[in-house]
Amino acid sequence: MQALHRTMATDVSFLPSFLMLSGSHIELSASALKKNIQYLQRRIGIATRLVSVIKGNAYGHGIEAFLPLAEQCGMRSFAVSDATEAERAYRVKRAPSDLMIMSMIDNDDLPWAIERGISFYVFDEDRLQAAITAAARVGRTARIHIEVETGFNRTGFKEAQVDHVIDRCLQHRDALRVDGVCTHFAGAESIANYYRNMEQSAIFGRIRDQVLRRGLQVGAFHAASSAAALTYPHTTLDMVRSGIAMYGFWPSKETRIHNMLSRETHFTRDPLHQVLTWKSRIMSLNHIAAGQHVGYGTSYLTAGPTKAAVIPVGYYHGYSRNLGNLGEVLIRNRKAPVMGMVNMNMILVNVTAIPGA
Length: 357
Ligand SMILES: *Cc1c(COP(=O)(O)O)cnc(C)c1O
Description:
binds pyridoxal-5'-phosphate; 11 helices; single chain; alpha/beta; 15 strands; about 350 residues
């Protein structure tokens, strides 16, 4: 299988563990994840399947670390973006867990996915034909999700093509098992997209009726991501694909405020909990006199005698350069602001007000 030999140059999860631990490490919280899953499942109802979206290296949490943790917390369905991620997930998942590829897989790799029972999106005629051909070659049924276009205008069959797609699926019942018919909302985390999203929902409803009317067996109709599920309950249907909320973040401030203030979903203590914590140590402490510039250039000038802590994390490790004079780290549960620019391998933070740092 070709995907076996492809790894992303930017992916640090393949480094030996001692390299990852020398300056900082990431911790994942099982209890936070469990709470998020329970909250989401309660919100969408137990009859609706919750799928854990682990694309983008599980949103930076690491596929190999996150997936087994999510399984421990009861998750049984996972969605990745491409075949390379699917291969990584397949290697660490338990046998009963489902895997779905939402976008990129080369036609040459389809037999690989079909043999392993990995489902994939079919969004155009070429992919549909390739799925049928590959299934025949492997001698197994391909598990597919038919993606339909409802206004996002990225990938998916247009509404006018749906009848033909249904014909093909009915003709090739031995080759194709339709696990899902799906679409994706164009930004459900913002009320600015309300009319566009509701139009999408209406179109998807029409397509759903059409598919049901034609008698095509479909495992699940699914459209909602975190934001749609948490904002528009009628979009949850049979299955919800959740990424960001499961990791403990609201899709946007709007989504959080909408939920916090709505009568049915009102909360005072945030029901979502961050799964990821990035931890490092103070490498060195430095006392700086008043009126001194700190670090490269002149962007930070001490107002008084200042105690600075040096943290061995920089933009090379993923601490954004944009956080110079803006970011904060937690030391002894107090916020320590970044002083000056983020260096490639270090930041300086102000710990003047943190005794015992
Ligand atoms: C990323 C993605 C999701 C999950 O979105 P969140 O906002 O993180 O919940 C769902 N569906 C598709 C097609 C995606 O690409």
